[in-house]
Amino acid sequence: MNIRGRLIPVAALTAVAALGVGTLSGCSGNDAAAAGDGRLDVIASFYPMSFLAERIGGDHVHVTSLTTPGQEPHDLEISPRQIAAIDDADAVLYLKNLQPSVDDAVAQSSVKTKIDAAALTTLEAHGNEVGGHAAAHDTRPGEEPAGRDPHLWLDPVRYAQVAQGVGKALEKADPRHAGDYEKNTTALVKQLNDLDQRFRTGLAHTRSKVFLTTHAAFGYLAERYGLTEEAVNGLDPDSEPSAARVRDLERMAKADRVSTVFYETLVSDKTAKTIAHDADLRTDVLDPLEGITAKSRGTDYFSVQNANLKALQQALGAR
């Protein structure tokens, strides 16, 4: 994965057994009425999951997100009421290893359909730091990596793979409306493929291939489009960089002609502004799309991703 010089190690994530679509437990048409109005009651862990559920489920689902807008999803500690809601739902859509409290609640619940987005695509596992670079390899369901980057939704290709798996899971959970779920999934995947093409074209010719972020959320995106992400922090956006790491980043910025330090909407921009001031760089927003708020540069996944593309084009000197 193209994240260089991460001197703050990523904590090892607990090994888990992934649930593929083939092992998802379905519910009957009668069970789909649990939402109270005939719709499938779906609990989503945070915005990228609720977006998929809403777009694919359409009028046939009632979606509730465990993470409120503006809340940093990594920090979520779910309440007893939310734990009960998971248990009562028809389906839960979550991303294992991103929110430990959600993982625990889902594992202990009797919800009929458990959809783990991480099991529907390949994720990068990060081993020990080797020569200042993170060693990485792909993981697939059944493997037990030392740590996996969960930010798969920022890569339109991986996100499309997850969308396809979610569509199949909803078809199985609510077979009466399988045709609509399939139709909605096809339309969403086409939009994601179009977004992928916009990124490929828009970032094909740039003055620099290196961008600097405060949170290592964009490794999949960087890898997909031939870029390199330099991250102040690791996968945890709230960790604090060492003084040595900050000095290294400032030297790197000059050597790699970096113009901008990117920060995100849900986390303080203090570190970004400090580095930018010391290294004479600009600051700008690169949104990891963990939630949509009034500060977001768009109202949904696609509009924010288009804003991210424009920000990268400007920062990298796209031609």
Brief account:
With 319 residues, the protein is an alpha/beta fold. 37% of the residues lie in helices and 16% in strands.
Tell me what you see in this structure.
The protein is an alpha/beta fold. It is built from 9 helices and 11 strands. Strands 1-9-8-10-11 form a 5-stranded parallel β-sheet, sandwiched between helices. Strands 3-2-4-5 form a 4-stranded parallel β-sheet, sandwiched between helices. Strands 6-7 form a two-stranded antiparallel sheet. Helix 3 links the parallel strand 4 and strand 5. The longest helix has 25 residues, at 178-202. The two termini are 25 Å apart.
Which regions are unreliable across 5 or more consecutive residues at pLDDT < 50?
A: 3-34, 126-137, 139-146
Overall number of strands: 11
Structural class by helix and strand composition: alpha/beta
The share of residues in helices is: 25-40%
- Number of DSSP helical runs: 9
User: What percentage of amino acids are in beta strands?
Assistant: 15-25%
Largest sheet report: 5 strands, parallel
Helix/strand order, N-terminal first = EEHEHEHEEEHHEHEHEHEH
Span of the ends, CA to CA? 25 Å
Average pLDDT, to the nearest integer?
82
Biggest sheet strand line-up: 1-9-8-10-11
Looking at the structure, what is the overall shape?
globular
Tell me the radius of gyration.
20 Å
